[in-house]
Every structure is written in structure tokens, then in C-alpha cells.
Automatic annotation (TrEMBL):
Gene3D superfamilies: Vaccinia Virus protein VP39. Its EC number is 2.1.1.72. GO terms for biological process: methylation. It comes from marine sediment metagenome. It catalyses: a 2'-deoxyadenosine in DNA + S-adenosyl-L-methionine = an N(6)-methyl-2'-deoxyadenosine in DNA + S-adenosyl-L-homocysteine + H(+). Keywords: Methyltransferase, Transferase. The lineage of its organism: unclassified sequences, metagenomes, ecological metagenomes. InterPro entries: N4_N6_ade-DNA_methylase, SAM-dependent_MTases_sf, TaqI_C. Residues 207-315 form the TaqI-like C-terminal specificity domain. This is site-specific DNA-methyltransferase (adenine-specific). It is an enzyme of class 2 (transferase). One of its GO terms (molecular function) is site-specific DNA-methyltransferase (adenine-specific) activity.
Length: 382
């Protein structure tokens, strides 16, 4: 690509069919910056897999050699997608690429860039609040064990380990496991007389509600259960979305697997900044929109929720009297949702979620036009 651009004369055009890894991968950043600093990006067309037995999908990149920096930055990039992808063609100004670490974010439009910039600029991230001395916020994954609860005992180490999927040997001492030493420590019912050895275990969960509980034996030496205090009175966040929305709930004392995150506001200098309030923010359309637009792509809309991405979420800390009043209202609504969802009052919950979303939009200073845009974007996905 560099050689092709170098041999071009001013305003000459060059087209490439190249792997779409160029768009965002960190190891392609140098090339993206060179393209940004040397050309007007006339068009990016995502064509997907086009060759026989493709290993990767592809894009067509049309570049125009341009030495004038102002013309490059003001250039309008045309973004196109195949008809079968059901994604509208789009146009973005070239200078926004610089603000996003030179990633070619073809799934965003100018309005998305503006809204995301507002959220990223004006509100602290969850990660920064975890580090703040004004709050005691903890977030961690659950037990390092699969949902099946299968473990195996090493006769040499005298410790239990999650049942390996590949090599049937101990990763510590390298001895071969005994197949007769396999146990299942997540069960439907607690065996008689062993109640102190077990705790409730979240087996499945939806937004605002735990669907299915099982029980986990917490006595197996070697299994990393984490500090059991992290499972008390906290928000639980699922790695997988529910209907393209962040899936979070509240739970008092159930253990989770490592596919869930446990978030707890242990103490706060602002009483309105509490677990119920944060749950309302997390389950809002606004933060799902933020997550999709920040970390999704033209390939996979809602990516798996990883802990570092969670830490990037912007959270509104209520400080003024008005903000605290809104936070109190949101907390009240969320507490009502938590009570009603157990009664399967779906119509009531839907109405309460609309009120909750409206309060969140107001807290984040989102105007009516942008609210309607975000709501339509999310509802078109559900």
C-alpha cells in the first residue's frame, strides 16, 4: 500500500482489495495513519468474503493522493455495504479518524461520533471510579469454573482443578489424572446434611432477574472461588447481551461462574450513587447504544462484554441537587422493576423501563433528537 501511494501523482486514484483487518487491528495502525496523512479516502466498500475458500473477508479501498492537509481532513469518506447486509451506506468526515486512534470505524456516522464524544468527554468511566478514593467499588469475575461444575482431584497435588478439555494431566505437577477422581460440584439440590458446604449458584440470568439457581460446593481446595464477600448484595452483569441490550441484575448472595461480573458499590461519598442506581444506568438503552457503537462492528453488532470494556462505560455521578433528585427517582423505578419482574408483570416492567430510560437520558444531557435516534437504533435491533 505504501509503495502504491508513493508512486501516485497529486489527485491520482488507487484502488485496493485488501483484508478488512486493516480497518481496526492495532498492528495495522501505522499503515492507517500513513493512508490518513497521504490521501483522501474516497470510498471504503465492505464486500465480505469474495474469493474462493476465503480465509478473511475483504474491503475495497479507494484512495486519492492529496498533499493538502486541510483538504484531506475535510474529505467526506463514502462507506458502502452489500445489499444483503441490510446496513445503509454512510458518509463520515475524514478528520474523525484521528480522534479514534486512526481506526476506520465504518459502522459509525457523524451523529454517532458526536454522541460518543459527548459521553466520553463529560462523564467519568467506571474504571476511573473504581480507582477513585471517593468510592469503594469492586468488580471481579466469578468462580474459575465452567457452568457444568466438573472438577478433578490430583492425587499428587492433593488439590482439585477444573476438568481439563484437552490434556488429561495436572498443569501443576504434570501427573496423569485418574478418571475416577472426577466430581460434579454444581448440583440441582444440596445433599442431605451438607447444607453448610453449599451456596446458591446463578445458573442462568436475564435483565433484572435470576432465572435459575443451582448450588455449588464451596469446600474444594484448589478451586478459585474468589473472596465469597464479592457475591454479597451486588450487581451481576452477564457477558452475553440479551436482545442486544446489556444484561444486568441485582443479587444478594449467590455465587457466579467466571462468565459473569460482580460489581459492588461498597461505599460511596454520594448516597445516590448506589447499586440500584448503577443497575439503572447499565440496563439503559443509552449505555447499550454506547457499548454497541464503541465496541461493536459491521460484522458482530454486540460483542461479548469483557471486563476492560465494562470499565470504559461512562457513568453519571449525581452531584447537583437536580441530578441527585433524578438519581433518587431512577433508584425508585429500578427497585419497583426488581419487585415486579418476579411477578411476571411484563407490561408494567416495559412502562417502567421507558421511564427509567428517560431519566438516564436526562442525567446524561441527551437532547430529544438524539434520544429518538438512540431509541430507534436499539428498537430496530430487538
Amino acid at each position: 500500500a505504501e509503495i502504491g501511494i508513493q508512486i501516485l501523482k497529486q489527485n491520482d486514484l488507487l484502488g485496493y482489495i485488501i483484508p478488512d483487518s486493516l480497518l481496526v487491528l492495532s498492528n495495522r495502525k501505522i499503515l492507517r495513519k500513513y493512508i490518513y496523512d497521504s490521501t483522501k479516502i474516497r470510498e471504503i466498500y465492505y464486500c465480505g468474503p469474495k474469493f474462493d475458500d476465503p480465509v478473511v473477508s475483504n474491503i475495497i479501498l479507494v484512495l486519492e493522493k492529496e498533499s493538502d492537509e486541510i483538504k484531506r481532513k475535510n474529505n467526506q469518506i463514502i462507506l458502502k455495504f452489500p445489499l444483503e447486509q441490510s446496513q445503509a451506506n454512510n458518509v463520515i468526515r475524514q478528520n474523525v479518524i484521528e480522534n479514534w486512534d486512526y481506526e476506520f470505524l465504518i459502522n459509525l456516522n457523524e451523529k454517532d461520533f458526536r454522541i460518543l464524544d459527548h459521553l466520553n468527554t463529560n462523564f467519568p468511566t467506571l474504571g476511573s471510579l473504581i480507582e477513585s478514593s471517593k468510592f469503594n467499588i469492586k468488580m471481579s469475575r466469578g468462580v474459575e469454573l465452567g457452568k457444568d461444575g466438573m472438577v478433578i482431584f490430583c492425587d499428587d497435588c492433593k488439590r482439585f482443578y477444573p476438568l481439563p478439555k484437552k490434556e488429561f494431566k495436572c498443569q501443576e505437577c504434570k501427573s496423569i489424572f485418574n478418571p475416577n477422581s472426577i466430581e460434579k460440584i454444581i448440583v440441582d439440590e444440596i445433599p442431605n446434611g451438607l447444607e453448610p458446604d453449599f451456596k446458591p449458584f446463578i445458573y442462568s440470568m436475564n435483565r433484572y432477574v435470576v432465572n435459575e439457581l443451582k448450588y455449588i460446593d464451596i469446600t474444594k481446595k484448589g478451586i478459585n472461588y474468589k473472596d465469597l464477600n464479592i457475591y454479597k448484595n451486588r450487581i451481576v452483569i452477564r457477558q452475553l447481551s440479551q436482545d442486544n441490550l446489556i444484561c444486568a441484575s441485582y443479587d444478594e448472595d449467590s455465587v457466579t461462574s467466571q462468565s459473569y461480573y460482580n460489581l459492588n458499590i461498597n461505599s460511596s461519598s454520594i448516597p445516590e450513587f448506589n447499586n440500584s442506581y448503577i443497575l439503572g444506568l447499565l440496563n439503559s438503552k443509552l449505555l447499550s447504544y454506547f457499548f454497541i457503537k464503541s465496541f461493536g462492528s459491521y460484522k458482530k453488532l454486540f460483542p461479548r462484554i469483557l471486563i476492560e470494556k465494562l470499565k470504559s462505560l461512562p457513568l453519571r455521578v449525581p452531584r447537583t441537587t437536580h441530578e441527585k433528585l433524578l438519581a433518587q427517582k431512577l433508584t425508585g423505578i429500578i427497585n419497583i422493576i426488581l419487585k415486579n419482574i418476579k411477578l411476571n408483570k411484563n407490561s408494567t416492567i416495559s412502562n417502567l423501563q421507558i421511564i427509567s430510560d428517560s431519566l438516564v437520558f436526562e442525567l446524561y444531557l441527551i437532547n430529544d433528537n438524539d434520544r429518538n435516534y438512540i431509541i430507534k437504533f436499539i428498537e430496530d435491533l430487538i
